[in-house]
Amino acid sequence: MNYRERLVYLKTAENEFQFELDEALNGGFGGTNGGVLASLCVNVARALAPDREPVGLDARFIRSFKPGTARVTATLLNAGRTLTTISVDVIDSASKLTTRGTVSLVDPQALAPIDSELPASQLFDEHGTEGKVWREPASQKIPLIKTFQPRFLGKGDYGIATAVDVLWDDGALQEAVCIAADISVGPPVASALKGKAVAMPNPDLSLRFAGPGQTPPRLVSTCRLEALNAGLATTQLKVWDQQRLVAVGVSTTTCLGG
């Protein structure tokens, strides 16, 4: 079963959708990966504003989502001439709110046809996109490793680069970006902790999408640790489709003691 088949939504009511999320989408804490939940927010917002392009996401992961049926509700906050803003809630089978996302979408017809040629990233000249697949720890089951095949590409001033397979049909670039970005948050924090036995959940993810594009077979996310103070880590993200930057973002990681 491919990713798109797992995450196809069923519309159950006005502005309400349903997804079936299985264990293959779980991260290392027994719940659905936050990037997957963020991608649902973008996907449902897109359904409410099909003629507009997602440009921003702010997601808060409020509590863990256990595998099962996700009820996703959307509230149109504003539909302006150029910008639409939609709030999306992901609710579990116990009727508890697990994720809240705010998605901004722009009317592409309102944008001026302006491009700027920026210097290309040298990341892919150095590392390519194959890399080394993450090893699942003997003491911790991480199903998303088998599903998304995250691969370590290298480390530099940009942080740590992680390649992730995109198992989604064309036309869902921003949804795929959410997953690549969220998966890449852990490595630079873990590297800074140098083996300390702490849990490292990230309770948020904020992304700004850098324009439309085709959905590639893989994405690369570079994540750099910007600060680690009093158990709070702040990371900066960039997501790439080869030489093309497709999103930038930030995330918080809470380093929790035993």
Please, could you describe this protein's structure?
With 258 residues, this protein is an alpha+beta fold. It has a single domain (3-108, 128-254), classed as Acyl-CoA thioesterase, double hotdog domain (Porin). 19% of the residues lie in helices and 40% in strands. The protein contains six helices and 13 strands. The protein has helices at 3-6, 34-48, 123-127, 144-148, 173-183, 186-193; strands at residues 10-13, 16-21, 53-61, 68-79, 83-91, 97-106, 132-133, 151-156, 159-165, 204-209, 218-229, 232-241, 244-254. Strands 1-2-4-5-6-3-10-13-12-11-9-8-7 form a 13-stranded antiparallel beta sheet. It starts with a helix and ends with a strand. The model has no long low-confidence stretch (mean pLDDT 90).
Strand order of the largest sheet: 1-2-4-5-6-3-10-13-12-11-9-8-7
Estimate the mean pLDDT confidence: 90
Q: Over the alpha carbons, how many angstroms does the gyration radius reach?
A: 18 Å
Write out the CATH superfamily name: Acyl-CoA thioesterase, double hotdog domain
Strand portion: 35-45%
User: H/E order of the elements?
Assistant: HEEHEEEEHEHEEHHEEEE
The dominant shape is globular
Class by helix and strand content?
Answer: alpha+beta
> CATH fold name, please?
Porin
Q: What's the helix count?
A: 6
Helix content: 10-25%
CATH domain class name:
Mainly Beta
Q: How many DSSP-defined strands?
A: 13
Low-confidence stretches: none
